[in-house]
Design brief:
Blueprint lengths: L2 E6 L3 E6 L8 E8 L2 E8 L4 H18 L7 H6 L8 E2 L2 H16 L9 H13 L5 H8 L7 E4 L4 E4 L12 H15 L5 E5 L2 E4 L9 E3 L15 E3 L2 E6 L5 E4 L2 E4 L14 E7 L2 H13 L2 H8 L6 E8 L2 E6 L10
Antiparallel strand pairs: 1-2, 2-3, 3-4, 4-8, 5-7, 6-7, 8-9, 9-12, 10-11, 12-15, 13-14, 15-16, 16-17
Helix pairs in contact: 1-6, 4-5, 6-7, 7-8
């Protein structure tokens, strides 16, 4: 099979791989977005304009959602916390905050978009490799609580009640952006497409002549090793949360970047949680929440989402143990 690799501006990589039987070709585009590789795969001709538009959509949304960009709309909103007033926000920010509060309610706070102050403490801990000061962590926790976010849907406005609140969309932002990018590709007429935003994958129509897209799941703590058995997916989203890339080892214990909103402590279980759901936003936040929850509580949570499935792999006594929801086998290759 002939493979051609070309380089385009802004660190975009483009691959044209072979020819498909019906004349369509497979194109792969990649750019770094939101701290991770952002990959778009399309079957079809003349797809460069569509992929460029999808990358622009990702950049536009990141400028709204990022808590790393000082001038982002999210950070400007957080700066109004404790001022006792509603602030009008853009449609994308209002929508994702609506989804965030729904996630918090359904998960009983295991997903909490207000965890930002605690996340900042742990970012410093990872840099310094020192466990967070107990008083500092306690003070950060006092600035959290999803019940202190108030939404006015009539005026598309938000009131952050507590002083010092800092919103963090890291638990569902990539899934939301990936879904928006795929929706845009479909508007351009490219339905056989897939968007991978750092492991938050949104999948459209199956490739030509195929029953679905083949997806593998990483082993716990491994960047390259894939667990046995592939998934076959289409018109759906899948997200995996774990500590492969972001963690800190302190006093012989490994702490994940995923923080339990109830305690403010990074998770210490060496496991990956994979969720399949109807769209990228739900798959993303469910994977985050189910990382915090017990397996039994996670099963109860995903029952709220028709067709959703859960797969957990963790290391116990040096061995990898798997658990899955009843529907997970429906997505496995036979």
């Amino acid at each position: 099979m002939k493979k051609v690799s070309l380089f385009f501006p802004a660190l975009t990589f483009f691959l044209l791989i072979g020819k498909i039987t019906d004349g369509q070709q497979k194109y792969l585009f990649e750019q770094p977005k939101m701290g991770s590789p952002f990959t778009i795969t399309i079957y079809g001709n003349d797809s460069m304009a569509a992929s460029a538009a999808a990358f622009r959509k990702a950049d536009t949304l990141n400028a709204v959602f990022s808590d790393y960009i000082d001038s982002s709309e999210l950070n400007r909103l957080s700066a109004t916390s404790g001022q006792g007033r509603y602030v009008v926000v853009s449609a994308p920010l209002f929508t994702i905050l609506q989804r965030s509060l729904e996630a918090a309610r359904l998960s009983k706070g295991s997903f909490d978009v207000t965890i930002g102050p605690v996340v900042k403490v742990w970012r410093q801990a990872r840099k310094r490799k020192v466990f967070p000061n107990a008083d500092t962590l306690k003070a950060a926790l006092q600035k959290t609580g999803y019940r202190y976010i108030h939404l006015d849907s009539i005026h598309q406005s938000v009131w952050l009640e507590k002083p010092g609140m800092q919103l963090d969309l890291g638990g569902l932002g990539k899934g939301f952006v990936a879904q928006a990018a795929l929706n845009l590709l479909e508007e351009y007429g490219f339905h056989a497409a897939m968007v991978n935003a750092g492991g938050k994958i949104v999948i459209g129509q199956a490739p030509p002549g195929k029953q679905g897209w083949m997806i593998g799941i990483n082993a716990p703590g491994e960047k390259e090793q894939i667990l046995p058995g592939l998934l076959l997916l289409q018109h759906i989203a899948i997200a995996t949360s774990g500590d492969i890339y972001q963690y800190v080892e302190l006093n012989g214990k490994r702490y994940s970047h995923i923080v339990d909103p109830a305690t403010g402590i990074g998770l210490t279980r060496s496991r990956n949680v994979t969720v399949i759901a109807a769209d990228g936003t739900d798959a993303d936040w469910l994977a985050t929440a189910c990382s915090v929850l017990s397996f039994r509580a996670s099963l109860k949570l995903i029952r709220h989402f028709p067709g959703a499935a859960l797969f957990v792999s963790e290391i116990r006594n040096g061995k990898i143990v798997h658990k899955s929801s009843p529907h997970f086998s429906n997505y496995q290759m036979k």
